[in-house]
Write a structure and sequence with these properties.
The chain is mostly helical. The protein has two domains: 71 residues, Arc Repressor Mutant, subunit A, CATH 1.10.10; 115 residues. The chain contains ten helices and no strands. Helix 4 crosses helix 5, helix 5 crosses helix 6 and helix 6 packs across helix 9. The longest helix is centred in the last third of the chain and has 23 residues.
Length: 189
């Protein structure tokens, strides 16, 4: 009869995410996880097959966390600016999670659409609202989204690596300026 897991999958992932957020994904080891849970390795590997699987699941869990975090609305901002601001603020407040989500080295470069797919339904919702609110074609809305997202990524990376420090007002102003500049350029204003 198989051994009944001492810890649920969600409990192990919560502990693993906490380690990754506090110390960085490279610090997430079986030893750290075992110490955090106060157990031997056996309960961990009753639920998971390998540390690689745990790392992959932690990243997925972190994306779900980001989706929930990004859904908390900010006043008086279009959804794209809210998403961009949430992304940058994650870099400020949770630099290790930002690096886990957006700055992990991959085996090979992927198309930017694949990155947007990772953002889930927020991407589709932003595109839909940009089209509707500003009278843009799907291709134009995608271009605005892509350009503002790349700009927000850069700001977030600067904040997450502590290369620069900005106030929330400065960040909001920079994102708003980029958004309106891209919108004006695409609309030919």
């Amino acid at each position: 009869m198989p051994q009944k897991p001492r810890y649920k999958r969600e409990e192990i992932l919560a502990a693993a995410l906490e380690i990754a957020a506090e110390k960085g994904i490279d610090a997430l080891s079986v030893r750290e996880l075992r110490n955090s849970l106060g157990c031997s390795v056996s309960p961990i590997f009753t639920v998971f097959d390998s540390m690689q699987e745990i790392h992959e699941e932690v990243r997925k869990t972190a994306f779900r966390y980001f989706e929930e975090y990004a859904r908390e609305t900010l006043p008086d901002k279009p959804l794209l600016l809210q998403l961009g601001m949430k992304m940058v603020m994650l870099g400020v407040q949770e630099p290790n999670l930002y690096q886990l989500l957006f700055m992990q080295k991959k085996q090979e470069a992927t198309a930017i659409e694949e990155l947007f797919d990772e953002l889930g339904e927020l991407t589709a919702l932003c595109l839909e609202l940009i089209e509707k609110d500003y009278g843009l074609s799907p291709a134009q809305a995608k271009q605005v989204f892509q350009d503002v997202w790349i700009y927000a990524f850069g700001l977030g990376a600067l904040c997450a690596t502590r290369a620069c420090r900005f106030t929330e007002e400065e960040l909001s102003g920079m994102l708003k300026g980029e958004f309106h500049a891209r919108l004006a350029q695409i609309q030919g204003v």
